[in-house]
Write a structure and sequence with these properties.
Number of helices: 14
Bound molecules: glutamine
Shape: globular
Number of domains: 1
CATH topology: Amidase signature (AS) enzymes
Oligomer: single chain
Helix content: 25-40%
CATH architecture: Alpha-Beta Complex
Number of strands: 11
Radius of gyration: 20 Å
């Protein structure tokens, strides 16, 4: 799509916050001729990394994030910076300071969040690819709502250098694209060791050949399903979608095995306690002296809530009442997931428990409404696992994805099941 057309279509969608010039010379590489959107919490030299916040609205990046360096080297053109929830705090794409992003596949509905602009830009065909971040579902949730593919790699597979933290022990950068093959192709560019990120993993070169190793064959794949997935789904249409998807996988030769995730209902409080403390600490640098403005005086309600609660919990830390307990709950959730994955190749379940709401129709001052979207996505980040969302059905006019979750470093197994499922759906 021509840039003028992208700008015109964006007026309705609000997927981009800023556009970029086309580079004079583009190197030959894996992304030559491809266009990309990059979420506004990653540094792209010369563009604003505002995190969709008034706090950083005038902050222009002076360097490229690791993933941005890689994209440029491979000949990709970053068309612009994508809209998001403020500092990636949200599940609907509505908490940003510059307006909500429309869902291109379901007009009037939210795109989901927090990588709202990324998913919308891909879904509307404005770009070939988008680069999002996922702390508790922010790639998978909007991918599900907008009917595109989104993948969150194992923690450490993609360098976070140049990403503005929400919660550094949970944040992971990953691709959004129209197909699993394209998502794997972009992941191949994004992933790789980077000494500037101390959590970056240095893996065998074969690990990174995501497209060469992509296989759609599902026969003999062992798929785990947990009854808790079904119990916690709110929307009847999503329950039906999951059960029909599991039937399709069984018909294709997968072995379906029931697994137990008894603490799944603890994922939301556990995740948010961890996030509040880490986010509070990450935002101390936004004191108005070096980067942008003082955050407490310029942010929206959800960001302020997290800062205040993070401060309170950190002060109470000596008593071990909240944070230490949340860390313990995090390791319980992680062990349960690893146990459940022990006898299977992947787990399959919903991405979200309920369909997205209409823009402006939910009370954003009530955190329960927004947090409720995260029950199936946050456990994956708490455990550092790879997981993706692949389009599964359209329910009452709104797309809905299936979540595939894998063992640590079995990113390829997740992509393969996603590809196999995509093929069963005829693409
Ligand atoms: N919805 C979750 C939150 O608001 C996840 C956000 C994310 O993954 N960045 O924290």
């Amino acid at each position: 799509m021509e840039i003028e057309q992208i700008k015109k279509n964006n007026k309705k969608l609000n997927a981009f916050l800023e556009f970029n010039e086309q580079p004079d010379s583009i190197p030959e590489g894996g992304l030559s001729g491809k266009t990309l959107a990059v979420k506004a919490n990653m540094n792209v030299s010369g563009l604003h990394a505002s995190c969709a916040s008034k706090t950083l609205s005038e902050y222009v990046s002076v360097y490229d994030a690791h993933v941005v360096e890689r994209i440029k080297k491979e000949g990709g053109w970053i068309v612009g910076v994508a809209n998001m929830d403020e500092f990636a705090c949200g599940s609907s794409g509505e908490t940003g300071a510059f307006g909500a992003t429309q869902n291109p596949k379901a007009p009037g509905y939210v795109a989901g969040g927090s990588s709202a602009g990324c998913a919308a830009a891909v879904a509307a065909g404005l770009v070939d690819y988008a680069v999002g971040s996922d702390t508790g579902g922010s790639i998978r949730n909007p991918a599900s709502n907008c009917g595109v593919v989104g993948f969150k790699p194992t923690y450490g597979v993609v360098s976070r250098y140049g990403l503005i933290d929400l919660a550094m022990s949970l944040d992971q950068i990953g691709p959004l694209a129209n197909t699993v093959d394209e998502a794997a192709r972009l992941l191949e560019v994004l992933a790789g060791y980077d000494r500037r990120d101390s959590t970056s993993l240095n893996l065998d070169p074969d690990f990174y050949r995501f497209t060469d190793n992509l296989e759609a064959d599902l026969s003999s794949t062992r798929i785990g399903v947990a009854p808790q997935f079904t119990e916690l789904i709110v929307d009847e249409g999503i329950r039906r979608m999951v059960s029909e998807s599991v039937d399709k996988l069984a018909d294709a030769g997968c072995q379906i095995i029931e697994v137990d995730l008894p603490s799944l209902n603890l994922s939301i409080p556990t995740y948010y306690l961890n996030v509040y403390v880490e986010f509070y600490s990450a935002t101390r640098k936004f004191d108005g002296r070096r980067y942008g403005k003082k955050i407490e005086e310029n942010c929206g309600g959800e960001v302020l809530r997290r800062i205040l609660l993070g401060e309170y919990i950190s002060q109470k830390e000596y008593s071990g009442k909240y944070y230490r307990r949340a860390l313990r709950a995090r390791s319980v959730i992680r062990s349960e997931l690893l146990d459940a994955l022990e006898g299977v190749d992947v787990l399959v379940g919903p991405v979200v428990p309920k369909l997205p709401h209409k823009i402006g129709c939910e009370d954003l001052t009530n955190p329960r409404t927004l947090y409720a979207y995260d029950v199936f996505t946050t456990p994956v980040n708490l455990a550092g696992l790879p997981a993706g969302s692949v389009p599964a059905s359209v329910i009452c006019g709104v797309p809905c994805g299936l979540q595939v979750i894998g063992k640590p470093l079995k990113d390829q197994a997740v992509l393969n099941v996603m590809r196999g499922f995509e093929k069963l759906n005829g693409s």
